[in-house]
């Protein structure tokens, strides 16, 4: 186990370096939420998103910041890893690793560590952009930052595990993007990333509640939006225990699916 952890830590560094060498991956998973936050902030600058109890206007950038943080977690974990691992299976990378001394645990540590490292950096960029350019007030209560930490960490690890499991679905590396990206887009649309969740039909909200993205977005809203907007949430509560339970269940589901489906080499290879 000590050896697996040590190799896994080394693998994290390799995975992060490989990630930032891929320009298209960096744009569509790392910078995409940053670009979207900028577009939404400018496009909806005249829209009314409500006011705080102190009379401060809730701007578009303030309103969409939690959604973009949740989207970043989803892209860094689920989308990036699902496509990346599917490509590695297809081009023979995993076949070569299967013949090396690298334990599968170390490989997983490397992938999850990559998602965590890039997710943290991405969140930092989003928060800096929101605070310095769009004047979004960030939480002053240390308890809210602690709340953000556990929601973020649980969200990233759950997304990463689900990404590893989803990588078994595409039949080849060439089809990975076509399979994974539509799934990610649909989940974002029904989970309150691009649209106000309260504006969705009630039946669609119930469908979204089955999946983890809705809970990640709700968790981020509980940290960065003022308490006055809790009335827009289902049952008018942030429901932190529900967020922890839903993400925890999906983490276990992803872990079980990964154990059952992950193979170094596809059966048809």
TrEMBL record:
Predominant place of localization? membrane
Compartments it resides in = Membrane
What molecular functions are annotated in GO for this chain? ABC-type transporter activity
Mind telling me which InterPro entries this protein's record contains? ABC-2_transporter (IPR052902), ABC2_TM (IPR013525), ABC2_TM_bact-type (IPR047817), ABC_2_transport (IPR000412)
Q: Where is the signal peptide?
A: none
Q: Which PROSITE patterns match?
A: ABC_TM2 (PS51012)
GO CC, sorted alphabetically, is:
ATP-binding cassette (ABC) transporter complex
* Domain ABC transmembrane type-2, chain residue ranges per copy: 24-268
Question: From its record, what is one biological process in GO terms?
Answer: response to antibiotic
Alphabetical keyword list? Antibiotic resistance, Membrane, Transmembrane, Transmembrane helix
Q: Which Pfam families match?
A: ABC2_membrane_3 (PF12698)
Membrane association type: Multi-pass membrane protein
Q: Where are the transmembrane segments?
A: 26-44, 64-87, 115-136, 148-169, 176-195, 243-265
Any keyword Nucleotidyltransferase? no
- PANTHER family named in the record: DOXORUBICIN RESISTANCE ABC TRANSPORTER PERMEASE PROTEIN DRRC-RELATED (PTHR43027)
Mind telling me what this protein is named? ABC-2 type transport system permease protein
Q: Which organism is it from?
A: Microcella alkaliphila
